[in-house]
Amino acid sequence: MNVTSHQGSSAVVNGIRVELIERGAGKPVLFLHPGIGISPSAPVLDALARGARLLAPTHPGFGTSELPRGMSTVDDLSYFYLDLLEQLDLRDVLAVGVGLGAWIAAEIAVKSTERLSHLVMANAIGIKVGDRETRDMLDIWALTPDEFNALAYFDPNRGGHDPKSLSDAEALAMARNREATARFCWSPYMHNPKLKARLHRIRLPTLFLWGTANRILSENYGRAYCAAIAGARFETIDRAGHFPHIEQPEEFARRVLAFAAAGMQKAPPVRRASGD
């Protein structure tokens, strides 16, 4: 495997180049973004970096990150990140995921917690809670942008983008984010049917954060997800919807860093597994 990294630029893992934002110092925090991507100017990144060494990659296929042939599942993404952790020799890592990023974090942790210390799951997707005929999450591709913003945000204006204000590169990145989300999450819709039965393998201090104004995914779903991980805590964030890191970045970062500093101990590590 070959990895190169550049501050605030990119990392190359096994020949796959991905964007990588890196700033701050201290305990490593791996921030795994939701399907809408992550901007280097997002306030939550500086808020986290004030208390930790922040690493925020853009997933393969999102933004300008490369997408290798054959990478098509969240399971694939989790193995990419296991390689990244290993090759950058990151240890005692606080993994923080939002939405799709939380799903990826869970898939990493059921395979190996050797390099992880804590797990934060914000408005997480990835498991099936309801019956087979009922979607746990709204069909986001059936919504107009205005409808999505009204349901996903406490303040819908936080999700608005004037297409005329976007550069060609920004518009392309948004299109790639949407395409990649469909690639990784469409079928089965927003979950891995096997993940729920594997969550017992997560033996890390785990915190679920949930925006109280989230109408894309219910709080009951989040609480059921939380209950499937032994010892996990569930907390809500007011005046935030599906993306609390955007609407309440300072409070989000405060909760994350306080949780990591609380001194909770992990159980003996679950080492990397190749599959069932």
List the helices and strands and how they pair.
Layout lengths: L2 E3 L4 E4 L2 E8 L4 E5 L10 H7 L3 E5 L16 H14 L5 E6 L1 H12 L4 E7 L22 H8 L15 H18 L20 E6 L7 H9 L5 E5 L6 H4 L1 H13 L15
Helix pairs in contact: 1-8, 2-3
Describe it for me?
- The protein is α/β, with parallel strands linked by helices and 276 residues long.
- The chain has a single domain, classed as Rossmann fold (3-Layer(aba) Sandwich).
- 31% of the residues lie in helices and 18% in strands.
- Strands 1-2-3-5-4-6-7-8-9 form a nine-stranded mixed sheet, sandwiched between helices.
- Helix 1 runs parallel beside helix 8 (249-261) and helix 2 (74-87) packs across helix 3 (100-111).
- The model is unreliable at 1-7 (pLDDT under 50).
CATH fold name: Rossmann fold
Count of alpha and pi helical runs: 8
Which structural category fits the helices and strands? Answer: alpha/beta
SSE sequence, one letter per element: EEEEHEHEHEHHEHEHH
Low-confidence stretches: 1-7
What quaternary form is this? single chain
Q: Total strand count, please?
A: 9
Structural domain tally: 1
The mean pLDDT is: 92
Features:
276 residues, alpha/beta, Rossmann fold, nine-stranded mixed beta sheet, 9 strands, 31% helix, disordered N terminus
Give a brief outline of the structure.
The protein is of the alpha/beta class. The protein is 31% helix and 18% strand.
